Amino acid sequence: MSISKHQLIAVVLVSAALASGGCATDFGPQAGLLGIPIPLSPYFQDKQEDRFWQRERYERVPILGPVTSGEVVALDPPTPDEVMRALEKARPVEGGLPFLHEVQRNNVRMIIEPIADYLDPPRVYPLIGPAQQHHAHYRCTLYFTETTRVGWPVPYTTVDEDTREVVYIDHNHLHLLNDVDDGVAGNY
Prior knowledge:
Blueprint: H1 5-20, H2 42-58, E1 63-64, H3 80-90, E2 101-119, E3 123-125, E4 129-150, E5 156-176
Parallel strand pairs: 1-5
Antiparallel strand pairs: 2-4, 3-4, 4-5
């Protein structure tokens, strides 16, 4: 297999352009072709940011200070963002293809009711020490209008104005114990 004169000149010019220009030299000559930036779709960027938001806000268990009074009540009911994310996880919107099949949830109203609020008995948690787990359970009832638009093969729109969904959300966190020697140490 022989390489023509024009192909050889093209290879030399492309390699010279890559070695001498702009962003290709930011990472040094040892990066080679890996030093060239590759464009990323905004879809993947949004998905990664959404995953980070979910982990940062809702998937961690906070550790609070000791309980000072006899009665403990939950401090933070679910936010509307958390309720909508739980609804999307429990019942995802199907479709999402513009002009083919779209589902929208409009005029959303929420009623957030506490169901239970209680403390577990003290125990020792690894890497934390003696603590009590505080449970708070909520029932979130959502009322909304669901509009479904189908564009193929026969275009039509359906509107369900009385859609009702119920989502249950649990909030758990830990309370450190004030003093291990206060008489509850034997309950571990």
